[in-house]
Specification:
- The protein has about 140 residues and is α/β, with parallel strands linked by helices.
- Helices cover about 25% and strands about 30% of the residues.
- Strands 2-4-3-6-1-5 form a six-stranded mixed sheet.
- The chain starts with a strand and ends in a 6-residue tail after the last helix.
Length: about 140
């Protein structure tokens, strides 16, 4: 199965912010935040397409999210994930005295995850707080 090493950037988006108004357990929030924007050429390298599930992995863990073809770029080997429970699952919690973990410049590996379900916020949080990890 194909996999690529890329750099993760994360931050706020307008859709993440406005969908948060409906609640972090809403379908709208899930659709706007459980995502990973990937360069079109990287999607080809992975052998996957927009809307498919992909696994994003760091030393801290793995999370399954929906691949979105980035409309910005080109920016090969750089992905973007909005702030939220999905990216928090794979971010190192160390803050280096700043009170906030690093959300930019994170080394990650992406692999296609055909047929793998993207967990909703409640299921993801239950899994991670009960010591579970995505396989």
């Amino acid at each position: 199965m194909a996999k690529i090493k890329v750099t993760l950037l994360s931050g706020r988006t307008i859709s993440q912010g406005t969908s948060k108004e409906h609640g972090k357990t809403s379908q709208e929030y899930y659709e706007n935040v459980a995502t990973c924007e990937i360069d079109p050429e990287d999607l080809k390298t992975l052998g996957t397409k927009e809307g498919a599930s992909v696994k994003v992995s760091t030393e801290q863990g793995t999370v399954t999210v929906k691949a979105i073809q980035s409309k910005r770029g080109p920016h090969p080997k750089i992905i973007y994930m909005p702030y939220g429970p999905w990216v928090n699952t794979i971010i190192n919690p160390v803050t280096h005295g700043t009170g906030m973990p690093s959300y930019k410049g994170i080394a990650v590996t992406i692999t296609p995850a055909p047929g793998k379900k993207v967990l909703d916020a409640i299921a993801l949080i239950k899994m991670t707080t009960q010591g579970g990890v995505e396989a």
